[in-house]
Design goal:
With about 350 residues, this protein is of the alpha+beta class.
């Protein structure tokens, strides 16, 4: 039992009962991944919903399922195709882990989705909360969850001090989440507590008067809701600068370079980034000669840990030079008007879209 709510089993049952009663009337029951309840769809949605809101995820989920309707399709797809359908969602390691995990399920589990918590957590990109949500919603197993919405609800309800990302605070939240999770209707409860955080106990303007568990919420009763969860210690985001070469060949196709598998935009296709003089860089690194124009006004792309100021330098191949790039993997001439399935870094996708 946790310190903030020493009221025994009756309180635990009341919390779940009130939450489920609210969910039956006000919860979300028609999300696209709820239709079948299949673990594959639940898994895809849970990964997409990490760091991303439902409204943003829905169109991506729909397109993703159209292209990769089951584990077999995902496992057999080229990683570029997967990244292409993830482009714009960010946190691209999620897509790479999905693809890798699908292959493991096919090879090690005969294509059957694992039903044990430890087996799920051994797959790339699946942590304790995601595994618990999949097993609860698809198989009705009793497992606690602790995504961002649930952390917010529990921090406020029990007035838990400390930033939720801190190990000690997170452990207290896991203990609380385990205690509150009922034995019955686990699937509905799991969705209900996520819905409560997403629609009522929101980050900016929580609607405490409509909250089904407000009668026992310590921060509400203490008029201290705005103080919880304790925010992450703020850091000043540093700024970095880069120059990207927008090189066209005689057909108007654009030179793209694949990024390393790790780091920002890992595995995605991007415009070549150059240091120093653009002409010399292209000659030394791509084996081509280019004519350049003045750089376009720079624009900013923000990551979770830094700002990236991007300056685009338009360029064309010299008249006497063909479009044969230095022989190396990971460089292509890309037609922006084509339907080629390449995973493009979000800023590059924006740049190319403005060209069409």
């Amino acid at each position: 039992m946790w310190e903030a709510h020493p009221r025994g089993e009756s309180f635990l049952m009341t919390f779940a009962t009130n939450l489920l009663s609210w969910y039956d009337t006000h919860g979300r029951h028609d999300l696209p991944w709820q239709v079948s309840g299949e673990p594959y769809q639940t898994w895809i949605s849970e990964i997409m919903l990490q760091q991303t809101q439902v409204a943003t995820v829905i169109p991506y989920f729909t397109c993703f399922m159209d292209r990769f309707p089951d584990i077999t399709a995902l496992a057999e797809a080229d990683i570029d195709q997967v990244l292409h359908h993830w482009s714009g969602l960010g946190y691209y390691a999620r897509a790479r882990n999905l693809h890798k995990a699908a292959g493991i399920i096919m090879s090690d589990h005969e294509g059957e989705f694992p039903k044990e918590l430890e087996e799920l957590m051994s797959l790339p990109g699946i942590g304790r909360s995601t595994a618990g949500a999949i097993l609860a919603q698809s198989f009705g197993q009793r497992h606690a969850i602790l995504d961002g919405n649930v952390k917010r609800v529990l921090c406020r309800h029990a007035m838990i001090d400390g930033w939720p990302g801190k190990r000690e605070t997170e452990q207290r939240l896991w203990t609380l989440s385990e205690s509150l999770t009922p034995d019955e209707r686990v699937s509905d409860y799991t969705q209900a507590i996520m819905d409560l955080g997403a629609t009522i106990c929101t980050r900016g303007k929580p609607d405490c008067q409509e909250c089904p568990v407000n009668s026992d919420c310590h921060s509400h009763l203490s008029d201290a809701v705005s103080k919880y969860p304790v925010p992450k210690p703020r850091k000043h985001l540093p700024s970095r600068q880069t120059k990207m070469l927008l090189i066209r060949n005689n057909n108007g196709h654009i030179c793209l370079k694949q990024r390393p598998p790790t780091g920002i935009w890992g595995g995605l296709w991007s415009l070549p980034e150059c240091d120093g003089d653009a002409k010399n860089w292209a000659k030394q690194n791509l084996g081509i000669k280019i004519d350049t124009q003045d750089a376009q006004p720079s624009f900013r792309h923000t990551f979770s840990h830094f700002h990236l100021d991007i300056s685009v330098i338009p360029a064309t191949l010299t008249r006497l030079h063909g479009d044969r790039i230095m022989e190396t993997e990971g460089i292509v001439w890309y037609n922006p008007a084509s339907n080629q399935e390449l995973g493009l870094a979000a800023p590059v996708k924006k740049i190319l879209r403005n060209m069409i």
